[in-house]
Write a structure and sequence with these properties.
Blueprint lengths: L1 H16 L14 E2 L7 E2 L2 E5 L33 E2 L5 E10 L7 E4 L3 E2 L7 E2 L3 E6 L6 E2 L3 E2 L18 E2 L9 E5 L15 E8 L32 E2 L1 E4 L9 E3 L6 E4 L6 E6 L7 E5 L5 E5 L3 E3 L6 E9 L2 E9 L1
Parallel strand pairs: 17-24
Antiparallel strand pairs: 1-13, 2-16, 3-5, 4-15, 5-14, 6-13, 6-16, 7-8, 9-10, 9-14, 11-12, 18-19, 19-22, 20-21, 20-23, 23-24
């Protein structure tokens, strides 16, 4: 219940203001550079099923020629080392160790978007849905949002605002990953969020004609550059970077719904103090930012946060055989 309340509260501003995190290098962005120390692994295999270059004119043939699935394996290669999916194409990626659900984003998807030379607030982004599976059979989609206008079809080389989209791959430009947090996928008995074996990328057909359109979780047609009738059309998948997997995060995690830890003050300004009900002594405190990067650690009950930028952070407290987490605000 507590986790659900946090997620609902987090989404209220989205519905009211239709505003999401901005482009890379802007304040408040969630973009993650490929060199980030937060990444512990990359996809080890990829199977691609490209769609047509133009879904409205299938005689043009299928996309993807010269852009094989192998390009999406390992770390991102940048502009040309990508897997092109065409209209509605699919890529399914697997990993050496299953992805697991930890505080903050759990993996990130890389594409090769680029900024508009005349107006750098706008970006050429070929979007895609993201789905996850813990058995390779049943897939569950992240709730995707697009607030890009749908009155006029964007052309094949048009650009969009990253701040108008959420939970769609290719929100950010080349070498910057779009993070995804497993908590945002609705719970289902057929999905084990602590053992994600497959990530599936499904190209958004950016056409707003109802005959071909694809829709976000609010029922809005998603408008992105279309048509792009050439081999490199559709979403250009570069890589999927793993932030949390079973190999690197084997501990049990509890979101403190049983009140095993007390974190105060929250919001905080100068320090955060942690009290626990654990039977053993506290083993350590780690503080992460919203992109999953470790920013502070301590083996004491108190941690100094006076030098941190204001915003939301996630505290992980190790004691007994568990890791307990809380979201904290630094003012």
């Amino acid at each position: 219940m507590r986790k659900l309340l946090v997620l609902l509260l987090a989404m209220v501003p989205v519905a009211m203001w239709a505003q999401f995190a901005p482009a890379q290098d802007q304040p408040g962005t969630t973009a993650m550079h490929a060199d980030s120390s937060a990444f512990v692994a990359w996809a080890t295999d990829c199977v691609a099923e490209p769609g047509p270059m133009n879904i409205a004119n299938p005689s043009l043939g299928m996309a993807g020629a010269g852009y094989p699935a192998v390009n999406a394996i390992g770390a991102p290669g940048g502009t040309y080392g990508v897997t092109c999916l065409g209209d509605g194409g699919i890529a399914t990626l697997t990993f050496a160790s299953p992805i697991c659900n930890q505080p903050g984003p759990d993996f990130a998807v890389f594409e090769n978007g680029f900024a508009n030379a005349q107006n750098p607030d706008y970006w050429f982004l070929e979007l895609a849905f993201v789905e996850v599976s813990s058995d390779g059979v049943n897939f569950f989609r992240f709730p995707a949002y697009s607030n890009t206008q749908t009155d006029t079809q964007l052309g094949g080389f048009a650009c969009i605002l990253p701040s108008e989209i959420h939970n769609l791959a290719s929100k950010y430009g080349s070498m910057y990953g779009t993070p995804f947090e497993l908590d945002e996928v609705p719970d289902d008995p057929l999905l084990n969020k602590n053992s994600i074996t497959h990530v599936r990328i499904v190209d958004v057909v950016g056409c707003i004609d109802p005959e071909y359109a694809t829709y976000d979780c609010q029922g809005h047609p998603i408008n992105d550059p279309w048509p792009t009738p050439f081999a490199s059309s559709g979403h250009d998948l570069d890589a999927v970077g793993v932030i949390h997997d079973i190999e690197h995060f084997p501990e049990g995690v509890d979101e403190n719904e049983n009140g095993m830890i007390s974190v105060y003050p929250n919001p905080a300004h100068d320090f955060i103090r942690v009290e626990t009900m654990c039977t053993s002594s506290l083993q350590g405190i780690d503080l992460y930012n919203v992109t999953g990067q470790l920013v502070l650690s301590s083996t004491e009950n108190e941690i100094n946060v006076s030098e941190l930028e204001p915003g939301m952070y996630i505290i992980r407290v190790k004691c007994d055989t568990m890791v307990y987490t809380e979201r904290v605000i630094i003012k």
